[in-house]
Amino acid sequence: MDVRWTEFENSATYDYARRFVETNCQPQVKEETLNIEKLVAQMLTSMDWIMTAMARVKMSNVPLPTFEHSTNSNT
């Protein structure tokens, strides 16, 4: 009987903890991911502006790097 009760307790605790984390943490993670993606887009725009400005004033003879951002569709 003790073994069955222990198994039940472990299963119930695991299920509760998993539901708690999924319910309370996933929305926050998604919001933070969207905020980070917004910041990355702003950074890329700024870097592009800087590279264009450097090309206009010819501050460097080194070819300008290109900045690319790929998003993972699984997020």
UniProtKB/TrEMBL annotation:
This is Uncharacterized protein.
